[in-house]
Write a structure and sequence with these properties.
By secondary structure, the chain is mainly α. It is built from seven helices and no strands. It comes from Mesostigma viride.
């Protein structure tokens, strides 16, 4: 019986290895009367934005941070997809710089270390003490941005890399993934900081401290924007679910075209 059990367990392990990719299978045979054999199977489901997601063909995992998420199918055009990728990286970088500055200055003020203007007043304060008028400053910024961005884009076209400054030699697939993840988080944070200011006129750290004082009272649901916030949250979540459902339920064998809410 022990030999039969051993052979059966081995066959189960072999079949399991063939059926799953990247799994760990542990099986052991016990003599008759022993405790039941336990088998542990771990399948590599792939890195998708949710388990079982069916990403579009153009999101094949080759780009950093690609988890198959594109409910609007904006990347269906290969040429535009390259620019969207660069746009996300650059906006993420600016967002990380902006969010770090907003948090740092607000924290210094709230904890009494310095008396810096809030992020939404910093421009006006700087303008008041600047030797240049607003039109001159805008012209200077446009020139500097156009020069730097033009050089960056030309470098990207030649090398395929999303930047030209790597003083510390940190460029690697792992660092690119970390950059895009932190950039996405920073973009969401920036939108949140702006929304918070319009709701209660506070900076991020000030708003956090205010919320911690009385979480039940000091939150978005106690403001006049609560209905708008609720509707927007539900709409955004439903749209993603509907778009993904259209993609998942599509039957190519019946000639059904891929869901493309944006035609390009």
């Amino acid at each position: 019986m022990a030999a039969v059990a051993s052979i059966a367990a081995s066959n189960v392990a072999v079949l399991a290895r063939k059926a799953f990719v990247g799994q760990a299978v542990k099986a052991s045979a016990k003599p008759a009367g022993a405790k039941p054999v336990s088998t542990v199977v771990r399948a590599d489901l792939g890195k998708k934005w949710y388990t079982g997601a069916k990403p579009p063909a153009y999101l094949d995992g080759s780009m950093p941070g690609d988890y198959g998420y594109d409910p609007l199918r904006m990347g269906g055009n290969p040429e535009l997809l390259k620019w969207y990728q660069q746009g996300e990286i650059e906006n993420g970088r600016w967002a990380m710089i902006g969010v770090a500055g907003m948090l740092f200055t607000d924290a210094l003020t709230q904890f009494g270390i310095s008396d810096l203007p809030d992020w939404y007043e910093a421009g006006a304060v700087a303008q008041a003490s600047s030797p240049f008028d607003l039109q001159t400053l805008i012209a200077i910024e446009i020139f500097v941005f156009a020069t730097v961005e033009g050089f960056r884009i030309s470098t990207w076209k030649k090398t395929g890399k999303p930047g030209f400054l790597d003083i510390m030699g940190m460029d690697s697939p792992d660092m690119r993934l970390k950059e895009i993840k932190n950039g996405r988080l920073a973009m969401f944070a920036f939108v949140g900081f702006v929304a918070q200011y319009f709701v209660n006129g506070m900076g991020p750290v000030e708003g956090l401290l205010n919320h911690l004082e009385n979480p039940q009272q000091n939150n978005v649901f106690s403001t006049e924007y609560a209905p708008l916030f609720f509707v927007a949250t539900v709409a955004i979540n439903l749209w993603g679910l509907i778009a993904q459902a259209q993609t998942t339920l599509r039957d190519p064998s019946k000639g059904e075209e891929e869901f493309r809410p944006i035609p390009w």
